[in-house]
Design brief:
This protein is mainly alpha-helical. The longest helix is centred in the C-terminal third of the chain and has 37 residues. The radius of gyration is 18 Å and the shape is globular. 35% of the residues are buried.
């Protein structure tokens, strides 16, 4: 059975599980499929949510509230990362994609994070989580490369630059808050 997606490209429709496994295997055809399937954004969101829950369980750091915060943070980070990769990749490296294509491919690139649930294993957990972190990093470069239709070097540069921008943007509120707290301490005497 084949479906024709909004882009007009026919693909054999695979389940979310098959797509997540394909993305984890760094299968280029999987990334091309989810890039073209405008209906796969919800599936990508599910992958991000499941990966965030697995990571929270693996880190074993406190309750439902922490888990929910992790899920919300993961969804926010996913959207911002896709936006920054879109901006950097299209403006500086000649990439041809829209935000949704990056959103879908980068969402599925989170699939290996499901294995972070194994982080709960004493003595081995940190090693598993470090390996998964590297794996996701490679998957993100593949996702960016396939979505933007650029070479690997440009995909790596897009990932690095967009990550640095995200870090700088995250740092600004911390610096402002730290400055405000320091000023308050000085005023309080």
């Amino acid at each position: 059975m084949t479906d024709s997606y909004a882009s007009g490209t026919p693909y054999a429709r695979r389940s979310i599980t098959e797509r997540a496994i394909g993305a984890a295997r760094l299968d280029i055809a999987t990334y091309e499929e989810v890039e073209a399937d405008r209906g796969a954004t919800g599936q990508a969101a599910v992958v991000v949510i499941v990966a965030a829950i697995a990571s929270a369980i693996g880190a074993w750091n406190g309750g439902l509230a922490v888990m929910m915060g992790g899920v919300i943070g993961a969804l926010f980070s996913w959207g911002v990362s896709a936006g920054l990769a879109y901006f950097v990749g299209t403006r500086f490296f000649g990439g041809t994609a829209d935000w949704g294509e990056l959103l879908r491919t980068l969402g599925f690139a989170q699939a290996p994070r499901v294995l972070n649930v194994l982080g709960i294993i004493p003595g081995l957990g940190w090693l598993i989580m470090a390996a998964v972190w590297l794996w996701v990093l490679v998957a993100q470069v593949v996702a960016i490369r396939q979505a933007l239709d650029v070479d690997t070097g440009k995909a790596v540069l897009t990932a690095v630059i967009s990550t640095l921008i995200a870090f700088a943007l995250a740092l600004i509120p911390m610096l402002l808050l730290g400055g405000a707290l320091a000023a308050g301490a000085l005023l309080a005497g």
